[in-house]
Design a protein that fits this description.
six-stranded mixed β-sheet; disordered C terminus; single chain; alpha+beta; disordered N terminus; about 475 residues; globular
């Protein structure tokens, strides 16, 4: 495929969220997989037409990176009239383990300097069973955008299958509008934001970032652990949050805080969580990178009941989200921590625990016509999904869906494997014990009892493909 011609006038700055990915070595993070299993007839031409319709709607799916002479990166978007899409097809009929082959395809990476930000894989398992796997570059979209792509794709395909043009919702703004609008910051706001996050960075550094004080000096630089969570445990945790009028996402965040507190020496715990970042309703229908890392410091963790802690966490999350709007960025906060000799510490991603990504958005089973269906395959948290990703310290991923898990990606040059195992084990044990009847238990008693009762005898399993 030939190179696109662009002019300097069409080059746009990267957003702070995109720059955060580059600063985290996101090349190893690869692309986000979104997968559907089509059972029945699949019309390749109509599928391509549906894909091209979605790509034409969303600028990031037509994105390219450009390195300027001074080494900075800019992005451009190709015109929507003839969008380019990369395709690959495979036959899984003879594969000993078809799903493993699909998983292996979903662990990939793209290079936006030379490739399109979207690659479609058709993996056929016989004549009437096809996995449609889309790889979307993480510099072009976040997890929310990948679900949105999947939803629009099959809605458009179903319309075309019935002889109708795709009737997709009108987009209230473009990603370019979003990028340009971010630079319109009222006078004085940037200074106020920096002052606030300087104060948070002081507290964050004092709390130690949730990591053990002693860290190894050598290591491979990367490690992976996985813990399974029973669906009924996730359901009980959700019932606890709903009974208190809180988001279900509050529970795993509280479990991580409690696990870190139980292993540390301070009553204050600091970490960061990943927030979807679509603050304005107009951005919720856009494919793109919006989510951001939001620091959270919780003081007096063991004080009061479990319900008190959950409410404290929920309040801290809301305040952090409100304060982290542009021009704040994770890079700014990392710089403030570096000035204090501290690290970003633990990060938590938990955006499939809550109903935020409801079944309709996740693309559940969809009847395409009287001869075929498309069933969403929960691929965003596949084991091995972060193969090759180099996390500066520790990232915990709580994935919901059909097979809830806690995954840990950590830098074993900064965190000993024994500490990572202990943290994952304790978080899993606490999550299993979360239930409505636990709300009024004291935090100290809850942690002391459940971290002993719930600890497994075996080590966490290693992700598939490692």
């Amino acid at each position: 495929m030939g190179a696109r011609l662009v002019t300097a006038a069409r080059l746009l700055d990267l957003s702070s969220e995109q720059r955060d990915y580059l600063g985290l070595g996101r090349r190893g993070y690869g692309a986000i997989p979104t997968c559907s299993l089509v059972e029945g007839d699949l019309d390749r031409d109509l599928l391509e037409a549906a894909v091209r319709t979605v790509v034409a709607r969303h600028e990031p799916l037509r994105m390219r990176l450009h390195a300027l002479d001074d080494g900075t990166l800019r992005q451009s978007f190709a015109p929507p009239d003839d969008p380019a899409v990369a395709w690959a097809e495979s036959d899984l009929s003879e594969a000993a383990d078809p799903l493993a082959a699909v998983l292996g395809t979903g662990v990939g990476a793209l290079d936006l300097r030379h490739e399109e930000p979207l690659r479609l894989h058709l993996l056929r398992q016989g004549e009437r069973r096809t996995y449609v796997l889309a790889l979307l570059d993480h510099l072009a979209t976040d997890g929310w955008g990948s679900y949105l792509f999947n939803w629009e794709l099959w809605r458009g395909y179903r319309a075309l299958r019935h002889g109708r043009p795709p009737a997709l919702p009108e987009l209230p703004l473009s990603y370019t509008d979003h990028l340009l609008g971010r630079h319109k910051v009222p006078p004085g706001r940037e200074r106020l934001i920096r002052d606030h996050w300087q104060a948070v960075a002081d507290r964050y550094a004092d709390a130690g970032g949730g990591l053990p004080a002693a860290a190894p000096t050598q290591g491979r630089g990367r490690g992976d652990l996985v813990r399974d969570v029973l669906p009924e445990s996730a359901a009980r945790a959700t019932a606890l949050a709903e009974g208190l009028g809180l988001s279900a996402n509050t529970v795993p965040l509280a479990c991580l805080l409690l696990a870190a507190w139980s292993l540390g020496e301070r009553d204050s715990v600091a970490l960061s969580f990943i927030y979807a970042g679509r603050d304005r309703p107009a951005t919720r229908s856009l494919v793109g990178v919006f989510h951001r890392h939001v620091p959270l410091v919780v003081d007096d963790v063991p004080a009061g009941s479990l319900a008190d802690l959950l409410r404290k966490v929920a309040d801290g999350v809301l305040e952090g989200v409100r304060r982290s709007r542009p021009p704040y960025s994770a890079r700014l906060f990392s710089e403030l921590l570096a000035e204090r000799g501290a690290t970003p510490g633990i990060k938590l991603l938990y955006n499939q625990v809550d109903a935020t990504f409801g079944r309709a958005r996740r693309g559940s089973a969809r009847q395409l016509d009287d001869r075929s269906t498309a069933r969403f395959v929960d691929s965003h948290f596949w084991p091995g999904r972060w193969h090759g990703y180099h996390e500066p310290t520790l990232r915990l991923v709580v994935g919901g869906g059909e097979a809830p898990t806690i995954q840990a990606i950590y830098n074993d040059g900064r965190l000993a494997e024994t500490d990572a195992v202990a943290l994952v084990d304790r978080m899993a044990a606490l999550l299993r014990a979360m239930a409505p009847e636990a709300a009024e238990r004291s935090v100290r008693e809850f942690v002391e009892t459940e971290t002993v009762r719930g600890l497994p005898s075996e080590a966490p399993r290693t992700p598939v493909g490692e």
